[in-house]
# Entry
Amino acid sequence: MSDQDKTVKISAETWSKLQTLYQTELKDIDLVVEEAVQAYLKNLETGSLSNGQPQNALRRPEATFKPQTHLRQIPVVPGEAAVLFIDVQNYNCHKDGAEMQGLPPDTPVDYWWKRMEETAPKWVQLRDTCREAGIEVMYTVIQSLTADGRDQSLDYKISGFHVPPGSFDAEVLNCIAPGPDEIVLPKTSSNVFASTNIDYILRSLGVKFLILAGCLTDQCVESAVRDACDKHYYVTLVTDACATFSQERHDNSLRTINGFCRQRTVQQLADEIAQAKK
Amino acid sequence: MSDQDKTVKISAETWSKLQTLYQTELKDIDLVVEEAVQAYLKNLETGSLSNGQPQNALRRPEATFKPQTHLRQIPVVPGEAAVLFIDVQNYNCHKDGAEMQGLPPDTPVDYWWKRMEETAPKWVQLRDTCREAGIEVMYTVIQSLTADGRDQSLDYKISGFHVPPGSFDAEVLNCIAPGPDEIVLPKTSSNVFASTNIDYILRSLGVKFLILAGCLTDQCVESAVRDACDKHYYVTLVTDACATFSQERHDNSLRTINGFCRQRTVQQLADEIAQAKK
Amino acid sequence: MSDQDKTVKISAETWSKLQTLYQTELKDIDLVVEEAVQAYLKNLETGSLSNGQPQNALRRPEATFKPQTHLRQIPVVPGEAAVLFIDVQNYNCHKDGAEMQGLPPDTPVDYWWKRMEETAPKWVQLRDTCREAGIEVMYTVIQSLTADGRDQSLDYKISGFHVPPGSFDAEVLNCIAPGPDEIVLPKTSSNVFASTNIDYILRSLGVKFLILAGCLTDQCVESAVRDACDKHYYVTLVTDACATFSQERHDNSLRTINGFCRQRTVQQLADEIAQAKK
Amino acid sequence: MSDQDKTVKISAETWSKLQTLYQTELKDIDLVVEEAVQAYLKNLETGSLSNGQPQNALRRPEATFKPQTHLRQIPVVPGEAAVLFIDVQNYNCHKDGAEMQGLPPDTPVDYWWKRMEETAPKWVQLRDTCREAGIEVMYTVIQSLTADGRDQSLDYKISGFHVPPGSFDAEVLNCIAPGPDEIVLPKTSSNVFASTNIDYILRSLGVKFLILAGCLTDQCVESAVRDACDKHYYVTLVTDACATFSQERHDNSLRTINGFCRQRTVQQLADEIAQAKK
# Structure
């Protein structure tokens, strides 16, 4: 401190706090104030410290909320797209599947099997449309890597989903059986991004647009929609190529994740892709 | 092939396929059959090839579905637990928050502010209960690392969530302002696991039980529940310490993710923790 | 099986194995052979099962090894590039840094301080070159999120690297102090990709080219080079903007990771970037 | 401000900066100083803001460097351990492997084949020791999921490592062919953690101790050591069960990563495990 120091005023309350805080360590409050102001200036100069929370209210940056939802609606570019069929497999979609034998008695199985009948042709149409357009066709199935399932996630161990490799239940439903050189990813989590390397593979493939279908709409499919959206993909959910245990659950799910994806029927998507070719 | 070869029969149809397939390459069908049977035996011996799908139906492994849902109900062990407050910040929970200024006109804001009033004391109780029990108290807030938001995810750029560091909107709601040395993670994705290193931090901290609260119940909170469950955590969702834009949406979300977490009120959780101490 | 069945031969040894295997379950070896051949044909048709290992040697796909190393040499595109300064901070680069006080007595500190003197201007030149070209300038520092370091990785706890937030040691070296709105990522792992969300941020920023510099060449820098390469980035290592505890270690590291990155001096990179502008 | 305000002094230089900064916005420097001191006090109270960098030098937290390297030496607990064989496959370890046909003419192949001969029995011993002790035995191989390799990482495309599924080259070396129900993970990155879900699987299996072996010592093996260490595993590198293209490269690698793992010969590890059983 020197002769040229300037005099300023601070509130009695703040002065008192400083006094209390530093009395045993430091008598000279001026030094503390000097340091405080210098720190404050440094924060102002840098605007903001990354990850940090500068405290200068006079020039605080302002938050905004300006959705540009039209950007989520951009059409699929086939050469940068993949379709993923989620859990369309015997375990839960075939009458002989093990999960279907163990469901609680109040499960609305009649609705389910009717829905399966309606959805199967949608899966076929979606698969054919994508193959024809040169879109990568991928599948994920509930399946462990070991016969005893020891590699299953904690959740799948609790949920009791045990589908060993090589089992009938692990197979993709016959109507859309994987073609030559199409990728099938076994998973032991609801969200395919959690337990598989799909994000890595999609990046390797140059995929930016992810088309999702399968079941259950509000379980594994919804989890995939949410994470794909968070992981920088443009997500198209094919609404009539998804199924869950009631129409109400299906509709609720579509509403809930409306902000994370765009939603199209198979036919709408097929039309869009056909249009893109012209 | 030698004198000791054994004679077997295969169907005409299969024989014909082999014939067609190999006629230009190989005349001797016996060699192909020999190889096929050896491959088949090898598959049988190894039981299953990891990641592979052996095709031997005679001894195929069997899938099962045996939920053990009681395992999801095990009580929180405080020394291995963390509570995470999700998006309890000025941006969307304070009347001056920027998001609240930009909502569509049909947003049920009356419900929302009433809910905020009811929920705030629950957050405080939850925070205090956890702190007292030695449970790690953590926060995540919608916030970019840069003032211009260029580090935001594609989704947040589309959604228009712009909360710069140092802004009023980035601050945790004052009623549960972070205490000394509590961790706050800025995020630019709905699911906190997608855009932050929280999974790494939780592992470093030795956390196995994750308690979740905040808003919106059916958006960022639900995404966190789903991913935490998939990532091997025992998840407790604190139902009355969550909020979204209608009671119906809140209830639907709880039902939908019932299989991914256990659900408790703040008081139930507090009682459980008090019980654990005895 | 029918009248039209065809007769084929299999080796006695294989026949015997089948006999042994199935005697208690199945008398009719023909059925097993039929199934084996059908499985074999199915494998042939699909070419390969994803993740699986079909066993048909006759038409096995062929591996190749055809490096295209010129592709790793493509020049940085400034608008899609970031430079990351690794651990250029007081803890280990400043004479008052805590790590430098605790090094084993046989550490070649004379070499180190000389190297620091030479490297500091390189860091400045690199930083200035990148800023001017519009390349994103980023920093990572050894730093925990908590004052007691409980969030440190197991490795950092063992290694004893304790750098609390707000400490002198956590600061980037003054000569390249972060500018306004530049990102600084605290880390508690050698490899910045392991303990931070840098991969997420780089994707958000649209970065494809990653320029790496800092210290130690053969520790944290090398780990970052390896992982960045594996994570689909084009990596440029700036050789004279890296340092470690001996010239030999430095040179060995550059040789070892030559296949994971291209290597340039600051001047070479500056020339390349200047050239790109023309 | 009130009558009870206290007078303090700040340096002329700081005062001048404030003046410059605020002249057009704010005449009253006292208000700025008050805010600065309050912000400073708030930082002091919270000790440190997570992720932030408070600037109060008077009470800055202190960094330390206190290695506890004995903690890295704790012996493997078999029930919580896995061994991973890295790239011990025909592609690069068998005389007919495709990579071995394409190596540059100056590759020291004589050294390599001699080394392979010495190392093969070590792999067998390591595999047998681990199996016997109930340690999970795992393998990773260079292999794409598609016949045309389109799912390969950018790095593998550049490096030209093309190993389709079902190829001879994708097979683990016969001497340690995977047993029934052992996990094999195909990868298209140097670091197995980058392109596979191994971290997820290890967590599902409850693995804390990771034993690493294979080749090349200073390439894929070293990358795995580094990342496993960063990902909270206790890593044991089995030195004589690793190989690279020269003894010098091998030795350099072991020295470089000495801080990331403990290093044992197969025999030392076998003795330790035998000891643990007693």
